[in-house]
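Reopening this one. Same input as before:
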Amino acid sequence: MQAKRIIPCLDVDDGRVVKGVQFKGIQDAGDPVELARRYNDEGADELIFLDIGASYKSRATLLDVVRQVAAEVFIPLCVGGGIRTVDDMREAMNAGADKVSVCTSALQRPELLGEMAKAYGSQCVVLSIDAARADPGRWHAWSHGGRTDTGIDAVQWAVQAAELGAGEILLNSIDADGTGEGYDLELTRMILGAVSLPVIASGGAGTLDQITSVLLGGNGADGADAALAASILHFGKTTIPEIKKYLDLKGICIRW
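Same output, byte for byte:
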């Protein structure tokens, strides 16, 4: 069985890590280089950096952070936020990213996924889907940091993106984000059932049991490939070693 991954997410704005609830109510969560160093030392499998400032200045600041982190940390780094072209991707990769995440830019111009895959390989292209429930059993993909409902069916978008060249999906539940009430298991199952790509479940991690549930899925084989965590780590509710020890006790294959 493929080892499941635990991935801290650092939302960065003007050089600081921040966190909100359902993409609102942003508060400071610390220094990104310090947090990255700590999570690396604790055994994180990857790190995701997302620029939520979405300006040229904020992206430049984030890339400077990535350069500092890449010099000290030797686990995969994913960078997202404000990446609109292959040139933007190149800039992030040159700063030390191993892969990049795109959301709004791919919704606006889906062929970008293919261009990025052609330039660097599908394994470097992560499609970030910010999804919110629209109707029972149906979710829409949102753009612009969860501010704009595109009306696009999130599951169908995942399928299209896989065909276009995305190599992995970062699935963010807007409804669950920052609530600590657990991942959207139904949404996660729907995406996993529709695509064969690795899926990182994001949004709602509040307890070790919730992380276990999203990784186990229905029968151990159907769970997410990775669990993203932010608030639960940034604000000291648990640590990566505690998460991994708990998952190991539950029989989930993890990397030590």
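So the earlier flakiness isn't reproducible anymore. For the record, The chain has a mean pLDDT of 92.
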